[in-house]
Amino acid sequence: MGSIRLLTTLLLACLGFCGAVSAQQGLPPPAVLVTPAESRSLAAQAEFIGRAAAMDRVDLQARVKGFLGPRKFTDGQEVKEGDLLFTIEREAYQAAVDQRTAARDAAKAALDNADVALKRAADLLRTNTGTQATYDQRLSEQLQAKAQLESAEAALRDAQIQLSYTEIRSPITGRIGRASVSPGNIVGPDSGVLATVVSEHPMRVLFPVTQRELMEARRDGSTDANTPLLVQLRLADGSLYKEKGKIDFLDVTVDPRTDGQIVRAVFPNEKRELTDGQTLRVVIESAKPPSVVAVPQGAIAIDQAGAYLFVVNDKNQAEQRRIKTGITRDGLQAVEGVKAGEKVIIQGQQRVRPGMTVNPTIAPATPAPQKG
Question: CATH topology for 28-42+290-372?
């Protein structure tokens, strides 16, 4: 009795399975969306956080003490090398120059007199009407007068230098920031920075690169001076800075705290869109990327055996392809194991099994990825 019941159950299960298979075979082929695999130039891209640093930066400070005179600039103004920016009261320093000038003139007169006395002593000694002792005395006096003149001239130069410090001029061409001290205040060497001038064109951008990233770059030749690189900046709003840059320096030391080295890139900045100290993202890729076969990332699936995708052949049958993946960029992935032009399923592959007939529809063409 039990055997009959078991046989009946098996027959019913078989009839149900066969009916399901028949029903499934009666369904139309599943609709899938396909796109041709394309041969494209696809460059690997790396982004780093960097900071803008002015090509030249000068903190203006007073080198002599005195009352600060009227300001000769407007905050944020473009200035040229040699432009007068601040003045410090000069009367006391001009008086010191006048005093040193008078002392110099007196020392010069004393030397002229000593020269005449020495010449007279020499003439008398030559005619045997003078003594050697007198000549030696006049020579000593002449040498002392000469030394006093040199000392007076040195003091005069020092006074002139101090007077020149009452005019603070821009040592570089650039843009000046806000003044930190108002006119009428007493300033001096201990007063700190009066204003800062920065040269913003071109602009440098410094960014750290880890040792691992440098090793990978050396392996693929990216650090070779002959390897062309496309260097761009991504601004705070996500847009790309329109000017391209160039890497010109790799630091000679490694920061032990981060295990990274500082890399420097230079960018044109004629319109002053970049500001000293600004945080930016540096985008680097090869200027001459290799040509690869690329498919949309959505076409790729992964199981225990690795990455695979489905290709639709000329008979509209799905073929499973095991692939090796490469560069990922702008929604595309470089793959090995698929030829350019083969139709790859990008939507509906969950309903597909190897060898199954499908109803493919060509997806709209994917636009080429933009640089950066």
Answer: 2.40.420
